[in-house]
Each structure stands twice: as C-alpha cells, then as structure tokens.
Amino acid sequence: MSSDTENAELKDFYKKILALLSIKEAEVAFDSFMAYTELLNIILETHGVELAKLTKSHLFLLLYYFLGCELKKRGIMTEFEFEKIKKEKFNELEIEYNPTPIPTNIGDTANKKNFCGLFDSFLEKLKKQTKTPSCIGVVK
C-alpha cells in the first residue's frame, strides 16, 4: 500500500471519527491525530496484538475508542457523556438521577461507561483473537 493511499485513508478516518465525537477539526489538528495513531500503534505492539491481522474496521474502532478516551482525559471532549445525569419533572417535583444500564453480563456495565473502558475491552478481545498459538510439540 502506498504512502499516499495510507494518508488518504487516515484523513478519512480522521474526519469520520471527529464527526462521530462531535469535535471540530480546529480542536484536534491532523498532526495531533497522527501522533495519537503512532501512540496507539506502540500500545498495540506492546500488548502483543498482531497488527497484520487487524482489519480496517478493527483499526477504525480502536482509533475511535482511543481518541475518545484521550480527548475525554484532556478535557477537549466535554459534550459526549456516557454517564449523563437525567432530569425529569413530575408536576412541581424535579428529579435528577444517573440512569443505570441493564447489564447483559456480570461486570458488563463497568466497562461500557466510557471510551477508556471500551478501548481496554476491545484491546483485550483483539489480543486474544490475533495471538498466534505457540507450538507445543511435533506429532509424527
């Protein structure tokens, strides 16, 4: 794959991810996005994820979760809330509460409340899927 093709695909990912996160290009420059992709590449390598086995869809989700996590940590992304407080009014009584999602698995809600949890879960899943099993012995 040529460098121009890779750069065009990354620009496409950049625009789509920023649109999904409701962030303007002025808030996260393409150079910053490229720095995040390099950091993500290093994280994947150190976690033992085989990059050659990842599809474009895997890469897009990883970038989406990772960028969402990092921008949330840095305070750039403030409007996208997983744990938004809901307000409801009953006649003259106003109630504020945190809606709790219905868990499908035990421990499921803890990981799905933020981008960082989603990123960590997806990274572990990919690590298991892409890991080449080691050879234990030879059968004759």
UniProtKB/TrEMBL annotation:
Pfam families: DUF3890. Keywords: Plasmid. InterPro entries: DUF3890 (IPR024988). It comes from the Bacteria. Residues 10-67 form the DUF3890 domain. This is DUF3890 domain-containing protein. It comes from Borrelia turcica IST7. The lineage of its organism: Bacteria, Pseudomonadati, Spirochaetota, Spirochaetia, Spirochaetales.
